[in-house]
Amino acid sequence: MPQHNNAIPIIDTHCHIHDSEFYPDNREAVYSESREQGVVMLAVGTDERSSRQAVEFAQSHDGVFAVVGVHPHDAKDGWEGIAPLLEQDDAHIVGIGEIGLDYFYMHSSKEDQQRALRAQLELACRYELPVSFHVREAFDDFWPIIDEFPDVRGVLHSFTDTQANLDQALRRGLYIGINGISTFTKDAAQQQLYQELPLAHIVLETDAPFLTPKPFRGKMNIPAYVGRIAEHQAQLKMVPAEDVIRITTANARALFGISL
Known about the structure:
CATH superfamily: Metal-dependent hydrolases
């Protein structure tokens, strides 16, 4: 297991450790192992049920914060249940997400996805919260919608797209979420992007239980493995891993307003 100086927290800005669908039996063990590695976790919702679970898990576990929202796959089922969570004024809730557009699977229509995205961006503005964005094969529609909300801050979760869309993101001040894909992709353009993207624009994430990084491929992903993603970034950029952790932790704290 990757080790680092636990005096410097490492933040997994996107995981689903709270969700009983993914961790029905081993959630507490995964949480304990991750905390032993100095990991602070952002538990990210994908629908109303998992968003409620994220809040409840954050309330009852040290070093966990909640991000609430409805994924584009579930946009057809509505997003109205997110607003009551935000009305609680709970300090454990630090963001809206994961929200966005996904035209690859089309589990919800484009119209429903766009309607849900706009509605949840309105919530982000109302409550002055940053956003974790999920965007897949939909950037042509995504950018005009984002530009309707110029004050929104956020991160492009699990970014694997083109340099042109990366430039668009950086121009708007968005952070880029780097996860296990960076350790195993064979796409040369992606490899170059992960190597050249400055640490000042990066936050680390696992998307656990998905996208397990090398050398743990074949196992269920857990937030503790975020240290491996930091190590890989350090290798690509030829800097100490502690520098990667220090900078990306500062980025995550600035974006999500986390006090550690």
